Amino acid sequence: MKYFFASLVCLLFFSQTYAQSPMRIAIAGLSHGHVDWFFNRSGKSDNVLVGIYETDQALANKYAKRYNIDQKLFYNDLNKMLDEVKPEAVSAFGAISDHIAIVRACAPRKIHVMVEKPLATTFADAKEIQALARQHSIYVLTNYETSWYASNQHVNQLAEAGKLGEIRKVMVNDGHQGPKEIGVSEEFLEILTDPAKNGAGALFDFGCYGANLMTWLLKGEKPLSVTAVVHQNKPHVYKNVDDEATIILQYPNAQCIIQGSWNWTFPRKDMEVYGTKGYALAVDATTVHQRLAAGSPEEVLKLSPRPHPYTDPFSLFASVVKGRLKQDEFDLYGLPVNVTVVEILEAAKASASLNKTVFLE
Hints:
This protein is of the alpha/beta class. It is built from 13 helices and 15 strands.
């Protein structure tokens, strides 16, 4: 019996040590502009960088110099890096079309993956990613900035508590003046303006936010139909992709209008939810305008930012991998929601191309 208890104590000790130890993370790709977020995480000890995969030597050299990174961490072969440094997790910062290849490499090795939004460029890739994650018991997270907004969480809580009544209309507006206009890197601009690498232009780049939020609000429910209109307001700048996109998702009892644009006067990421009893507008990450009863005035709430680890996607990723945070079935960053997001985006792309409404099975 004493050996049993000794073994149990050792198991608990090592489990606790594993949960508290930094997550061994590798970076796959440096061309996606959001990668700088990882390197600018000052004072965080929940992740330790063990490898960087990048085939563009000039780009690798640029990042090595910018952030004083040891050249020994760089690899130009993904499989070699995974086998030699043995990360617990990989964060992907290349083209969206590369996500499937990264998961194919990581899943059999039991390495968890976080990708930048959206999950994939095609519904087929999204379904394969989900199948690989299930087969090999890994997490695959999709990072959306809006997942961490206290305002969106507050609106969802109002909906779950019935304070908005039944949701009837949702409007989600996302985008900025345009990637070239805001000065993204040449490498990132090349991804965003390549329909094969990004899936589309503003349609995928910012339409994905609304699809993500609506699927989350409706607990995974899929729309009956998808109608999309895209346009090039700046064909001289974005000759191969759309820079303006509007998507209408029709549900049995609700409608969602998604406006993704590279033509806004200012950057925006906001959501409006209207129900049979009231409405709530998530104006920015911490501001909500709400009206919850007929005859009552509109309230303006200023919320505190969400607590750790929700303020940082890499902290959250480590918390999930280490078992400190349990994923809900319909988390904004989880696979069930984000596979549906790609299904919606693919239907929107088809709708815009065919100039007609697409009905989902």
